[in-house]
Amino acid sequence: MISANLSAIFYLVSGVLFILALRGLSSPETSRQGNLFGILGMVIAITVTFLSIDNFSTGFIFVLIFILLGGSLGAFIAYRIPMTAMPELVAGFHSLVGLAAVFVAISAFLNPEAFNLGLPGNIKLGSLIEMSIGAAVGAITFSGSVIAFLKLQGIMSGSPITFKGQHFLNAIILISIVVIIFLLCSTQSSNLFWILLFASFLIGFLLIIPIGGADMPVVISMLNSYSGWAAAGIGFTLENTALIITGALVGSSGAILSYIMCKGMNRSFFNVILGGFGATEDNVNNSNKEQRPVKSGNADDAAFLMKNASSVIIVPGYGMAVAQAQHALREMVDTLKKNDIKVSYAIHPVAGRMPGHMNVLLAEANVPYDEVFELEEINNDFANADVAFVIGANDVTNPVAKTDPQSPIYGMPVLDVEKCKSVLFVKRSLSPGYAGIDNDLFYKDNTLMLFADAKKMTEDITKNL
Amino acid sequence: MEIDPLIFRFSIFILSIFVGYYVVWSVTPSLHTPLMSVTNAISSVIIVGAIIAGLSGNSESVFNTSSIFGFLATALAAINIFGGFLVTQRMLAMYKKKKKDK
Fold first, then answer.
1. Are A35 and B38 a contacting pair at CB < 8 A?
2. A100·B44 Cβ contact <8 A
3. Among the partner residues A66, A240, A253, nearest to B71 by beta-carbon distance
4. Is 50 exceeded by the pLDDT of residue A280?
5. A288: pLDDT strictly greater than 70
6. In angstroms, what separates the C-alpha of A321 from chain B's closest C-alpha?
7. For B46, which of A77, A90, A100 is closest by C-beta distance?
8. pLDDT greater at residue A465 or residue B87
9. Higher pLDDT, B22 or A285
10. Distance from CA of B18 to the nearest CA of A (A)
11. Does A252 touch chain B (CB under 8 A)?
C-alpha cells in the first residue's frame, strides 16, 4: 500500500497526461502520441488505485474480471464499428460514463464508509452535495445520451417530438431537482436520493426528445460536456485530483464544441435546446411555393463539366455519410487528379451529425487531410474554382442565409458555392433540407442538379471521366 | 485558521477548466471527432471510484448492494476506456498527409 500523499501525486501526474492527450490533438502528427499519453495516464490512475487499497479482499478478483469483461467488449466494439456510425458510438459511450457516475454515487451513498465519507444516514454534508450533483448530472447524461443514440441510430425518429406545456414541465422538473437536492442534504433520506435519480433520468429524456436530427452535433457536444461535469462531481466526492482535472477538461471541451456548433448554425444555445426548427417556424416556407425551373443532368454531363475544369471543390454533407459515398468520391477525385485537375474539399462546421464527422469519413477513404479545408480557409476560393461538387449537403450551401433577412437561417455562415462557374448538386429530390426551407442554389443558372443516390452518381461520373 | 481542503480541490477544478478552455481551442477542427472519443475515454477515469466501490465488500461477503453497483460501474467504465482509446487510435491512424512520391 502506498501513502495517500504519494497516490495524490500520481493522480496529478495522470491528470497532466490527460491534458497532454488533448494538447496532442492540435495537429494530426502529434495526435497519435497524445493518445498514448492518455492511455498512460489511465494506466497510472488505475494502478495507483489498486496500490492504495489496504485490504485486498476477494473482491479484487471480481474487479479484475469486470474490467476484463468490459474491456474486451469495448475493444470488440472499437474494432468492429464502421466509421459512419461514429456519432452513435460516441453518444453510446457518453451514456455509459453517465451511468457509471450514477452507479458510483449510489455505491457511495449506500456505503459511505468505504469512501471515508462518514456513516450511512450521516454523510458529510459537503460530500453529500457533491455526490447528489454528480449523480443528477450523470443520470441526465445517461438518459439524454440514450435518446440521442436512438435518434442517430434511426430506431427513434429524428424529427423533434414536442407537446403542449413541454417547456413548463421541464422547468418544473428542473426546479424540483434543485429542491430535492436541498431536502436530501438536510434529511439524508435515501428515498429522496432515489427520487432525485428518477427525476434526473426523466429530465434527461425530456430535454433531448424535442431536438431534431440535424441539431445532433450540438446535443452530442452538450452531453460530452455533461459527462465531464458528472465525473468532476464524483471527483469532488472521492477527493480525487485526476477525476477533478479530467472532469473539468471534458466539461469545458464539450462546452466549447457546443459553442462552435451553435455558431456554425448562427443559433443560440437555448434556441437549439428548446426545440427544432420545425416546431417553431413551420410557417416560413409557405410564401413562395410556385414551381421554379431547375436544370437537371446526368453523370455524362457532370463528367464533361469536370473534365474541362481546372479546379474542383467538393462540398460533402450528411448525405455522403448516409450513402457511404466517401470511397466512391475518393476514386472520382483520383481520376480527376490524373487529369491534372486541382481538387480540394470544403467542410462546413455543422456538416454531418457530430463535430468533425466529415473529416473522419474522408480520412477513412484515404483523403489526405491537407486537401481538406474548413469554411473560413476555403470560402474565398469558390470564386476562382470552376466546379463545385455538392454531395449530401444542403442548408450549409443556401445563399438565402446571406440575402434574405426573413429566412430562419439568415446570418448562418454558409459556403459560397454559388460563386463557382458551375455547381453540380447531387441530391435525391428537390425536397428542402432540415431547416425546411427551399435552397435558392437549386434554381441558379449555373447549377446542374444530379438527381440520384450519392454513391451511385459518383461511381457513374467516374466511369464517364 | 486552516483552509478547508475542499478549497484546494475547487482551485484545481477552476484552473483545469481554464487549461481545458485553452487546450481545446487549439484543437484543429478536423480532429473534433477524435477529440470527443478521447474525452470520452479519459472521463472514464471515474473507474477509480468504481474500483473502490467494488472493493467495499468485507471478507465475509464480497457482494453487497454497494459493491455490486461498484462492479457494474467498473465494467461500464472499462468498456469506455478500452473502446474510447482504441477507436481514437483507429481514427487517428487514418489521418494521412499527401504522399510525397506521387
1. yes
2. yes
3. A66
4. no
5. no
6. 14
7. A100
8. B87
9. B22
10. 8
11. yes
* Interchain pair A57, B57: CB under 8 A: yes
**Inter-chain CB proximity A241 and B56 less than 8 Å:** no
Give the pLDDT band (50/70/90) at residue A409.
confident
Q: Do A253 and B13 touch (CB under 8 A)?
A: no
Is the separation of the CB atoms in B52 and B34 below 8 Å?
no
Is pLDDT larger for residue A120 or for residue B76? B76
Query: CB distance B62–A357 less than 8 Å?
Result: no
Q: How many CB atoms lie within 10 A of CB A171?
A: 12
Give pLDDT, residue A123.
86
Instruction: Give the angle A258-A260-A264 at the CA atoms, nearest 5°.
Output: 115
pLDDT of B22-79, one tens digit each? 999 999 989 999 999 999 999 999 999 999 888 877 666 777 888 899 999 999 999 9
Q: Does A121 touch chain B (CB under 8 A)?
A: no
Q: Which residue of B has its CA nearest to A38?
A: B42
Contacts of A221 in chain B (CB under 8 A): 36
pLDDT tens-digit readout, A331-352: 999 999 998 899 999 999 888 8
Closest residue to A97, CB basis, from B28, B46, B51: B46
Angle formed by the axes of helices A166-187 and A190-208, nearest 10°:
160
The pLDDT of residue A372:
92
Averaged pLDDT, A200-215:
87
ipTM value of the model? 0.93
Distance, in angstroms, between A133 CA and closest chain B CA?
Answer: 15
Contacts of A65 (CB under 8 A, 6+ apart): none
Residues of B in contact with A26 (CB under 8 A): 26-28
Q: What's the mean pLDDT when you consider all of chain A?
A: 87
Q: Which of A93, A123, A333, A362 to mutate to test the interface with B (most CBs of B within 10 A)?
A: A93
| Nearest-angstrom CA–CA distance, A170 and A167 | 5
Residues facing residue A81 across a β-bridge: none
Total-model pTM = 0.89
Alpha-carbon distance of A270 to A258, in angstroms, equals 11
Cell numbers given for A234 = 464524483
Nearest 5°: the CA angle A132, A151, B72 is 40
Look-up: residue for cell 429530465?
A: A203
Grid coordinates belonging to A93: 459511450
> Which residue from B85, B75, B35, B87 is spatially nearest to A250, judged by alpha carbons?
B35
Catalytic residues of A: 395
Specify the amino acid at residue A259.
Y
CA dist B37 and B57 (Å) reads 33
Residue given cell 436530427 in the structure block: A213
Q: Which helix (H) or strand (E) holds A323?
A: helix A318-323
Q: Which of A22-26, A157-161, A431-435, B70-74 has the lowest mean pLDDT?
A: A431-435
